[in-house]
Amino acid sequence: MHEGETKPPLTHFLLIPHGIRMYSEKVGCSYIDAYDATSLLFKKLLQWIFVDYGIREFTFIGLTLNAMQTRSEEELTPIIEIESTVYEDPDM
């Protein structure tokens, strides 16, 4: 992006395991807590995601297992998913 340009509004956000591990290190929690939606440290991790990406409101947030294809096989990986209502276009 060039100077003066703004990012388009965020409507859907996925955080793959590499990003989840990065945030667990930023928050100072274990990987186990980072993948546990019932953990208080998971809430702290989400708060940092909201701050970093400017998310103020959301309709859906979930920690899900998604099937992803690797070089050799398909495996289930944890994904943090957030959907925002703030920028929905009712005319679509």
Your description of this structure?
The chain is an alpha+beta fold. It has one domain (12-83). Helices cover 32% and strands 26% of the residues. The protein contains 3 helices and 3 strands, in the order βαααββ. The protein has a 3-stranded antiparallel β-sheet. α1 (17-27) packs across α3 (40-53).
For this entry, give a set of tags.
single chain, alpha+beta, three-stranded antiparallel β-sheet, globular
SSE diagram, text form:
Layout: E1 12-15, H1 17-27, H2 31-34, H3 40-53, E2 60-69, E3 74-83
Antiparallel strand pairs: 1-3, 2-3
Helix pairs in contact: 1-3
Distance between the termini: 27 Å
Strands, total number? 3
Number of domains: 1
Residue windows where pLDDT falls under 50 for at least 5 positions = none
Overall shape: globular
Strand order of the largest sheet: 1-3-2
Number of helices, where a helix is a run of at least 4 consecutive DSSP H or I residues = 3
Strand content: 25-35%
Instruction: Estimate the helix proportion, in percent.
Output: 25-40%
